Amino acid sequence: MIVAKALKPYDCMVLEAEDGVAGLVMAKRNKPDVILLDYTMPVMDGFEALGRLRADPELKTTPVIMLTAEAGRNTVIKIANLGVRDYLIKPFKDELLIERVLRVVPLKLKSEAAERPKRFDDPIRILVLDDKPAIVAQIRGALTDTPWGVTDTDQPGQAFNRCLDPGADIVLASLSLPNDGAYTFFQELRHHANTAAIRVLGMSIRTATEEQARAQQAGFTGNISKPIDAEELRSKIARALKLENTYKFFKEFEGGLAMILPKNSHENFGEALLTRLDRLLGATVEAGGDRLVVDLSAVEEVDMEVVKLVISAIESCSKLSMKHTVVAKGAAKMVCRKFEDSNSWSFVDSLDEALSPAKQPGQ
Amino acid sequence: MTKQIEQIVELTSKAVPEVFQVMLSMDLNTVDPAVTPLDPAGEIVGSVGFTGEATGIVCLYASLNFAKTIASRMLGIEIAQVEGDEMVNDAFGELSNMVVGHVKSRLCDAGLPCTLTIPSIVRGENVRVEGSSQVGRRIIGFRNCEHYLLAEVLVKQNR
Q1: Do A72 and B91 touch (CB under 8 A)?
Q2: What are the residue ranges of CATH 3.40.50.2300 in chain A?
Q3: B75 at A interface, C-beta within 8 A
Q4: Per-residue pLDDT averaged across A250-278, rounded?
Q5: Residue A218 pLDDT exceeds 60
Q6: Closest partner CB to A69 (pick from B90, B102, B108)
Q7: CA within 20 to 30 Å of A317's CA: A62, A104, A335, B94, which one?
Q8: Percent helix, strand and coil across chain B, each rounded to 5?
Q9: What is the CATH number of domain A2-113?
Q10: CATH number for position B67
Q11: Is the minimum CB–CB distance between B109 and chain A shorter than 8 Å?
Q12: Which of A125, A137, A189, A132 is nearest to A159 (CA)?
């Protein structure tokens, strides 16, 4: 516990065992980079545990730092003769522990190690664990317009190995695999330090509520319904991985920014989108851009809420003296025209047309 | 044997404040153990024995509230995040282990080698450990602000 507290600010995983026996099992399973071994423990003490570690071909070279409350000369000599990399006498300050660990393994502070959040347009690695080729094909089909890579297997053991090497960002596991394959795989994943953090979404038919509840209780991140709906799939993967999705709805082009509204949007979506838009418009102007294109071509139903969103977006760009163009045709254009604000809007039929340098944008 | 128990009492008197200072950044002052109040909410006792050229046991007594404070400091978390008895027991047990380990190290260096037991924890109200007639007994009192701690040293007396 004192070790975990001292290492909390650092980018490392700390696994704790209460006694020597549990520690050996944990070390065997997880192959740690360093072992901090308490001398006084129940069931099996540190001395015996160290002997067992040295006898194990897979663990004998793992560096061990012994922790002990006993600083007597004889004890120190005994510990030194055990072949430990270092030892610490309790009580000790956190800084001393860190200093000793740093002699053995490199440690980075969590703030230094923090990666930028993954974006929606990053190459996400998706592993599908399913024994139905049709489902795998549906998933691949649903993600063709993303930069996400999809691999698949129908064997839980193989899936686990692939998570270890080359790795996966997220796994979609069919809950109907024989012999509870998805659950066995999930347990294996969670028990291994290198894979414990990988998100797993269960896949089941919509009405399999009991199966979904079981998966939720087991700790699965979420559920995807079969047959696969592309929008649901993308949305749930994005949510599970907390993908930064600003660029999902925005596209930079030479001279400006395009805001591409999706087919459907949830409540509060407009507010979130406008907040992001304000930030991006500023950056666009800073970069020399002076145009905003609002693309409604994918929107399933242009209603009052959508039009109000467009009005707000154009107001934002007008404040920055930017020009604007709206991509909409047919019924969508007619709905927009019912609003007085749209009188000044310049409409085009397609995004390509809007991005064409020859097109005259509205003011 | 009186000399031995006094030696162990003196080592314990130094070990307790040192361990509290290093591990918890908490200063302890020595006080008369007779004036340490009982906590109606209950107490916790951490005991570690030693056996060899010197044989005995050192017991640390604290109120449950103080033990919770100790656990929060040791784990680096807020007191409200200290949940359940296990966390407190582990922290107090570890602290007891460090104190008696400190004592044991000095005893070994002084030519009195001995071995420690693993710590044990007892909880209850008005808890006291008593030794037989062959055991010498001393109690040391400590205080940090409103918190009190007792260290009881019981040493086997050779005939």
Answers
A1: no
A2: 2-113, 125-240
A3: yes
A4: 82
A5: yes
A6: B102
A7: A335
A8: 40, 30, 25
A9: 3.40.50.2300
A10: 3.40.1550.10
A11: yes
A12: A189
Give how far Cα A289 sits from Cα of A292, A310, A318, A328, Å. 9, 19, 13, 22
What token pair was written down for A338? Answer: 């019912």
Query: pLDDT (tens digit, 9 = 90+) per residue, A45-73?
Result: 888 899 899 899 989 889 999 998 877 77
Q: Which fold has domain A125-240?
A: Rossmann fold (3.40.50)
Statement: residue A294 has pLDDT above 60: yes
CATH node for A246-355: 3.30.750.24
Q: Hey, of B94, B107, B120, which one would you mutate to test binding to chain A, going by the most A CBs within 10 A of its CB? A: B94
Taking each helix axis as running N to C, give the angle between helix A330-337 and helix A304-319, from 0 to 180 degrees, rounded to the nearest 10: 70
The verdict on a CB contact (< 8 Å) between B102 and A71 is: yes
pLDDT confidence bin for A360, thresholds 50/70/90: very low
Structural domain harbouring B74: 2-156
What residues in B contact A98, CB-CB < 8 Å?
Answer: none
User: What is the C-alpha separation between B96 and B94, in angstroms, rounded?
Assistant: 5
Strand partners, B46: B60, B121
Q: Is the separation of the CB atoms in A280 and A250 below 8 Å?
A: yes
Neighbouring-strand partners of residue B154: B57, B137
Tokens of A213: 């509840």
Instruction: Say which range, A43-57, A112-126, A162-176, A326-340, has the weakest mean pLDDT.
Output: A112-126
Q: What are the pLDDT digits (tens) for B51-63?
A: 998 899 999 999 9
Adjacency order of strands within the sheet including A35-38: A35-38, A64-68, A86-89
pLDDT score at A363? 41
